[in-house]
């Protein structure tokens, strides 16, 4: 029996946890090779493989064609790779030496910009604002969807629409500043 045998997939979908574990274990080297071929042997490969396996684990019941498990897993890997390239896996916070204060400790230099961004965020619905804030904190789409009891696709669409709305508001703000500033 092949390790990704459609009958094994059906058994895993029906609740056979041992079979599910064997399927995920069989996918792991394929996914690892996929990521290594694209980004090299960096430590992020382990995270990408793990996150892809989580996507496969969560979506296994919804897989309608058991013979397409590998294709399903590779599509999940592609989504993880896209998130990686978009910066999802980069550090989200700056660490400072406690003995050396940051250059702008109170954020004085960017206070006006922060105020404008806060005002711009007010054009979003509370739901959209919450999604954007969670996303900015580094939460993956799947976790946000689970937290807000919605789908990952709905969360992604909310982010897209929120950024479009923010782009329009901030563009209008920049045009207004340019129109009132004679030196620019």
Describe the structure.
The protein has 184 residues and is mainly α. It has 2 domains: 6-85, Rna Polymerase Sigma Factor, Chain: A, CATH 1.10.1740.10; 109-180, Winged helix-like DNA-binding domain superfamily/Winged helix DNA-binding domain (Arc Repressor Mutant, subunit A, Orthogonal Bundle), CATH 1.10.10.10. Helices cover 66% and strands 0% of the residues. It has helices at residues 6-13, 17-39, 44-59, 69-85, 111-121, 126-136, 141-147, 152-180. It is elongated, with a radius of gyration of 22 Å. The N and C termini lie far apart (71 Å).
Mean pLDDT, all residues: 80
Helix/strand order = HHHHHHHH
| Category from helices, strands and their pairing | mainly alpha
How many structural domains does the protein architecture include? 2
Give the biggest beta sheet: none
User: From the 3D coordinates, which CATH architecture of the largest domain would you assign?
Assistant: Orthogonal Bundle
Secondary structure tally, helices: 8
Globally, the shape reads elongated
Query: Could you say what the CATH topology of the largest domain is called?
Result: Rna Polymerase Sigma Factor, Chain: A
Give the CATH H-level superfamily of the largest domain.
Answer: RNA polymerase sigma factor, region 2, helix turn helix motif
Helix content: 55-70%
Amino-to-carboxy terminus distance:
71 Å
**Beta-strand proportion:** under 5%
Structure summary:
With 184 residues, the protein is an all-alpha fold. It is built from eight helices and no strands. The protein has two domains: 6-85, Rna Polymerase Sigma Factor, Chain: A, CATH 1.10.1740; 109-180, Arc Repressor Mutant, subunit A, CATH 1.10.10.
